[in-house]
Every structure is written in C-alpha cells, then in structure tokens.
Amino acid sequence: MKKLINEPGDVVDEMLDGMVMAHPEYVRRLEGTNVLTRADAPVDGKVGIVSGGGSGHEPTHAGYLGAGMLDGAAAGEVFTSPTADQLQGMIDACDGGEGVLCVVKNYEGDVMNFETAIEFAEMEGDTEIDHVVVDDDVAVEDSLYTSGRRGVCGTILVHKVAGAAAARGDDLAEVKRLAEKTVERVATMGTALTSCTTPEKGEPTFDLDDDEIELGIGIHGEPGVERVDVMSADAITDHLTERVLDDLALEEGAEVMTIVNGMGATPLMELYVVNRRLQELLSEREIEVWDGWISDYMTSLDMAGCSITVLELDAEFKELLGAPADTPALTVRE
Amino acid sequence: MKKLINEPGDVVDEMLDGMVMAHPEYVRRLEGTNVLTRADAPVDGKVGIVSGGGSGHEPTHAGYLGAGMLDGAAAGEVFTSPTADQLQGMIDACDGGEGVLCVVKNYEGDVMNFETAIEFAEMEGDTEIDHVVVDDDVAVEDSLYTSGRRGVCGTILVHKVAGAAAARGDDLAEVKRLAEKTVERVATMGTALTSCTTPEKGEPTFDLDDDEIELGIGIHGEPGVERVDVMSADAITDHLTERVLDDLALEEGAEVMTIVNGMGATPLMELYVVNRRLQELLSEREIEVWDGWISDYMTSLDMAGCSITVLELDAEFKELLGAPADTPALTVRE
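^ inputs. structure came back:
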C-alpha cells in the first residue's frame, strides 16, 4: 500500500485537522469529536442541515459545509458510520432553534446511528429533528451494507436543495419535503476501473484483472453487479446513462442536471471525455441539460472510475440548485 | 492500461468537447483548433492573458479560463507542446487592443513555440505581445525537457496574479512585472507514489516498486531526482517543504500562500493529511500562512502523489490573489 498517510489509525483525525487548517473561514471542529460544523454554527433562525457517514468519500461530507449547504458533517472512521453520540453532538451544535434535518445515505449503520441520535436529541432537547434517507444508486436493490438501494453521489444534490431551502427560511417540514422530492427524482450508477485500498487493511478490497472493470459499484469497495472486459469510455457512459435514465423514466423534453463524479483516482481529463458522451446521449434523447457538474464529489478512497448522476428538474428545483452556495468543495455564485 | 477514454488519439479532442459542454458559460473552442478561450474573448480594453502546453495536466490550463484569470488556453497533445500556429491563433483571439501576455511553463517545446507564435503575431498585427517563463520546480536545475528549472504548479499563481492585474486595468508592462515577480518568489517540489501512463504508450512512463516512491518528480512522467523507500506523509511533507523553503530563503515572520496539489490520482483525504503537516511546519518556523489551496491544480495524468508550492507574499500580491476570479477550476469570491 502506498498512500500519503502516517499511521492508518490516525488518518481521519489528521485529515480533519488538515481540513480545518485549510478552510478556517468555513469549518471548525467540535472539540474532542470527528464532527466539523460551519464556522458560524448554529445559524439562528434557520433549519440546520447536517449529514455524516464513514470517511473515505471526501469531499463528502465536510467539503459541503458553508452557506447554502450543510451546517454539520460527522466523519466516521474509513467506511464506518459515525457513532450515535457524535451524531447527537452534531445535531445539538447545529440547532439554531428552527429544527434540524439529517441527510442520511442509505447504509444500515448510518441509518441506525442517526435514528438513535435523533431519538436522544429529541428526548434531551426541545427541538424538532427529522431525517431523509438517500438511495439513489440504481445498480442494486440490496447490498452487503444496505436493505434497499445505496445512497451515493445524488446525496450532494439533496445537500444543495435542502441547504438552499433552509437558507431562504423554509421551515423544517418544507425543507424535508424538498429533500424527499430530490431523493425521488435522482438516480446514479457507477463504474470502477480499479478497486480501492483502505488504510487499515492495506490491500485492495476486491481483485480486478488488468483487462476487467466493474459496473454498478458502490462507494465502499464493494465489487459491482457485473464484471466485464475493459470497454471504451463511450460504451461505459452509454451503459451507466441508460440504466439511470430507465430508472427515472424521463420523457422527451424533460430538463435535468447531471453530475460526472470521479471516484478518487480518476484524472479530470477522463471525466470530461465521459461528460462529452453523456451530453451527446441526452441530446439524442431530447433531454435538456440545465447544468452539469464534473469533479470529485463522492469518492471511494483511491478507486479509479466514475459515476453518473441525473436529477429531473422543475422550477422549484432550479431555484434551489441555482441559489448561492459557498463551501470548500462547491461554489454557486449569486 | 485502463482509462475512461476511447481511441487514444482522440482523447484531447474529446476532452475539449467535454469541457465546452460542461462550461459553456465560461469557455468556447476556436473552431478547428485545440484552443479554448473565455466565452467573451477578446475582452476589449484589457491586457489578454494566455497560456498553454501539453495536455494531461487538467484542470491546467483551460480550467482557469474566466474573469480574473486566463483569456486563452491552448492544449497540445498529451505532454506535447501546442503548435506555433495554434498559439498564434489564440493570441489573436485574445487581443482586446491592450496587448497580450503569454504565461509559458519552462519546457523547450513550449518556449520555442510560444516565441515563434509571438514573432509571427507581432509581424502580422500591431499589438504588443510579451511573455514570461515560469520555472518554479526546485527539484532539478536541468531535465530531459528543459534547460533550467521546470515550470509546474506555481504557474497557477502566475495566472492568478497576472489575470487580476489585467482585470483591474494594469498595462502590459505592469502585468508582466507582476508576473515576473511571482515567478521569482514561488517554489514547488513534488513526489510520486506511482508513475503515470500516457494514452498513446499505454504503459507507465517509469517503473516503481510497491515499496518505493520518487521525490522531485516533474509533470510529464519523468522519474524524480531520488528514489527512496516508502515514507510517511509527514516525512514526505517535511522533505518537500524544506527544499521549497530553502529555495525561497524565507525569514521568520514572512507571509506566504501555499498549495497542496494532487497529481491526478491522489484522494483528497491524503492531500489534507499533507496539508496538516505543511501548516504545522510553517507554524514552527514562524511563517504566516495567508491562504492555502488544496486540490488538483496541475496534474500528471493518473499519477498518485502531490506537490507543495509556496509563494512569498507582500501587500501587492495579497491584493491580486484576493481579487475575484471566476473560472471552472478556481473561484475567489468578491
């Protein structure tokens, strides 16, 4: 294993320190925890939006802390849910008096720990707390880690929609409605050219030959649903996009936004090649692309590969997605 | 070789199409060329700032097209200089009547082709054109590709300083003075955990064992100046930072900005671990960090590793670095 790390057991702690040192204007660390919050949390008079999960998906989640997106982000160990008490501490720290919405990726550990944290936070305080579960991965119905579909890169769009709704003053019920509507209309599928290597294990989580790739991978080093011979970027993009579009059942004339997401070790050059084919395909199907993002948003350590996310839009979504966001990993200008 | 590409010979063309489709509000392609310009180029009454070089370093250079940075970016084939006629076409397209400054990384092909392009552009037009050569890599004095030091990630800071000076209305001589001052005060050094693989060759440009890394690498798959056993992130950071600081000969109390740059296949998690140690080291030496950037700015295809850049600041630089920039790869807010 070759990684820019020190002791494997220290990597999350040191990464969080490095993030705070890099972005002191955006984030601070709750003392004694692996929770980062907005530097100005809690923001009074606004619904707090928080998320969290295992580390190894950076910039998810802490990269999205800031105005117009998240108030809190809890980091578990690599590919491991944060504990319920850390989640509870985060919820408390992001409570500006208008309630808190937790955005949870659909993994059993995350869902269980968030539900426990919410229960305790509600018992001990007087704020209303609610949550949404994101399950945008169309590749599998159940996996090693989940009942139902996994939550992957579409989560970022839930952060953006909920964050913008909270920023303009929507109440908790309305923020939750919009977050759930995002979950219903977003779909993702990914491919891996390589496995990934966790710092603790030090070896790839699955073996993959030099002439093979995996289609339908998750973000925790799970193998995909199908192992195939190496394909061209266009063929891969066609496969992923068709699965995503079938799931959404879009009609001609639909308006969408797209994400081409790198899995952690994918050069930007390759993501742009994928984006070219994605945009061609959508144009052929007479689906209009309102905006498209290309970068590393939801990664899986040092995995090479990408995922494609499509969200079906309407006027309500466009207002929220186009609203300003100011975070380390994502900026939307006024 | 596993890459998200189609035919190796098409990768640059397809990438550029993918960039234009991703960022139509920022960039357009000069028809029949591999030159991208700002969507609104030429900007009348402003010195044009242009750059270019081989592909494989994305987001360099086209990712920096936009207000406050570059007006034009020419993309050669992978690790190959753009031709002089493409560079001349770019210079012409970015000439808003106040002259054009070319920012050139110090590689023999780039320098030669830019000089030829400038000569022809000056013969055929009546605009003044000038250039600066960036040579921030402290690792080697001469290399396979260069006489003198190589131009690497510090180039981004030259784009930022020159772009901000041009945006506020400085004339060509003043923009050039500020760009050259940046070159004098910036230093970079990098490390590779893996080699990189060019699409055409399909094999790593150098061999590296599982327990070895290279210190002092360039951005074209050149091996480093020293091959050593795998080291911890802290030990690597110490080594790179000390070389960079020795070159700059900073005194206690100096003020700097830093970049921790990923080489293309480096997870953000690891860059933050490196940043933590970098900031510690600078603090120990009583050097004040005004700002620090962490991302992929100047990559080398699918190389894993990082580089560290330090620029010594003064009031003039802080004004220009803090001025707004609005580009696909870098945003500085008002």
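Residues 108-124 of chain B form the longest helix (17 residues). The CA atoms of residues 101 and 130 of chain B lie 5 Å apart.
thumbs up if we can close this ticket
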